[in-house]
Design brief:
Radius of gyration: 13 Å
Number of domains: 1
Strand order of the largest sheet: 1-2
Number of helices: 1
Order of helices and strands: EHE
Largest sheet: 2 strands, parallel
Shape: elongated
Protein name: N-acetylmuramoyl-L-alanine amidase
Distance between the termini: 29 Å
Length: about 55
């Protein structure tokens, strides 16, 4: 099965995510999470596309 994964916010520009405790950045955390999900899905034999806008 093919999965399209979109982490959401851009790394810079007008659509960055929120900031959290200790300076955590949503746009960074969502990319890390998508990376883990990507590994898990590929490990189970699925195909993935990571759809993101980074500018």
């Amino acid at each position: 099965m093919l999965f399209n994964l979109n982490p959401g916010h851009t790394l810079s520009g007008g659509d960055v995510g929120t900031r959290g405790i200790g300076g955590l950045k949503e746009e960074v955390l969502t990319r890390q999470l998508v990376g883990e999900i990507d590994k898990e899905l590929r490990g189970r034999g699925h195909s993935t596309n990571i759809c993101r806008v980074d500018y």
